[in-house]
C-alpha cells in the first residue's frame, strides 16, 4: 500500500476513536467518518508498519444507521466523532468498543461475559455543563471555539449543540462584551494581547453560571467595565474569576486564579447532594448521566449497610459519599491535599459521619490499615484514562476486598487492569454508560469479585 493509493474497503467495526475499521490485503485501515457495514472507496493518507489511515473518497454503500450531522462545523471541529451515526446505534457500537478492548488485551472468554447494553440518554444533546473555548480574532471579528483535529486552526463555534444552552448563551455574550470593550485578544503564540480562553460552567440544577477568563497577561484589562457589562447582560453569572496563564502550553489553566466578582464557586446538585464547584474543581461534565454512573457503582458494590468501603484516589469524595448511606464506614485517600480538604468538607456538609479521608496513596494507607486490623469489604476506584497503577492493583490483591468496583473512562486500560486482577478476581459484570453522546468515549462500571480460594 502506498500513500495516495485508492482502494475499496468494507468497514467491519468502529475503532476506539470512532473511526471505521476495515482490512485491505490483511492490513488494518482506520477511516474517520466511515461506519460498520459500509462499502467505501478510500484514499490512503498515512502508512505505518502495523496499520494505515485513510479518508473516504466515496460511499458506495451507506449504513442504514448513517444520518446527516446536525452541527454546522462537525466536519471541521473534531470535538464530536459520531454525529453521523444514529444515537441508538452509537450505544450498540460503544458496547462493541468495550468488547474489542477485552478481546485485544485479555484472554477472557469475552462471549460468555456479562457485558450489558450501554446506558444512554433520552435526549443526547445539550448535555455538557462546561466549555473551554479558545479565543481568537479573524477578519477583525472575535471568535471562540476549539482547534481543529491535528491542526492549529481555531474553529469558531457559534452554537455547540452538545453544550448546555446557558453555556452557549454566556460564551456568545462574553465575546460581544470583549468586542464592545475592545479588550485585546491574545495571539496564538501568546506574544501580544491578553484574553486566551473563556471557560464557562453551569450548575444545571441550580442555574448558577461561572465565567473564568484566562489571560496571557497578569492583569485583566478593563476589569471593572467587564464585570459591569456581565452583570447587566448576564444576571445568571454569579461568579467571575480570572486565571493567569502566560505560558504557551496545551494546558488550559495556569497556576494562579484570582477572584474577580460574585461568589468564588457555584453550586450543583445531584439528587440529595449539593457540590461547590470552584474554577478548577473536577466535576463530571454530564450531570444527568453521572447520577446513572454513580448508581451503577452503588449497584456493583452490593451494599447491605455493614460494609467497610475504601474510595481510592477519592478526589473530593463524590463516589464514596454517594455510597455512604449503604456502608458502615468509608475511608478515602488522595495525593492532592486540597482534594482531601474538600472531601472532608463535603462529608460534613452532607452529614456523613462515617467517613475518614487521608492525604496519601492507597498503596500507603491500605497496608497500614490492614496492620491495624481494619480491612475493606469493597474498594471503589475511578482512575484517569491511564488506568490504575500496577502497585495499586498489587496492593488490592494483598488486601483482598470481597468486591472491587472499577469505574473506567478508557476501555483499553480497563481491559489491561482486569487481566492483572483476574489472577485473584472474577469479572462479574461490565456496564457501559454513555457519558458523552456523539463522541467515541464510553465509561464502564465493572463489578469484580474475589474468587473462592
UniProtKB/TrEMBL annotation:
InterPro entries: MeTrfase_TrmA_AS, MeTrfase_TrmA_CS, NA-bd_OB-fold, SAM-dependent_MTases_sf, TRAM_dom, U5_MeTrfase_fam. The active site is at residue 409. It comes from Bacillus coahuilensis p1.1.43. SUPFAM superfamilies: Nucleic acid-binding proteins, S-adenosyl-L-methionine-dependent methyltransferases. This is RNA methyltransferase. Residues 1-58 form the TRAM domain. The keyword Transferase applies. Belongs to the class I-like SAM-binding methyltransferase superfamily. RNA M5U methyltransferase family. Gene3D superfamilies: 2.40.50.1070, Nucleic acid-binding proteins, Vaccinia Virus protein VP39. GO terms for molecular function: 4 iron, 4 sulfur cluster binding; rRNA (uridine-C5-)-methyltransferase activity. GO terms for biological process: rRNA base methylation. S-adenosyl-L-methionine binds at residues 284, 313, 334, 382. Keywords: 4Fe-4S, Iron, Iron-sulfur, Metal-binding, Methyltransferase, S-adenosyl-L-methionine, Transferase. Pfam families: TRAM, tRNA_U5-meth_tr. PANTHER family: PTHR11061:SF45, RNA M5U METHYLTRANSFERASE. It comes from the Bacteria.
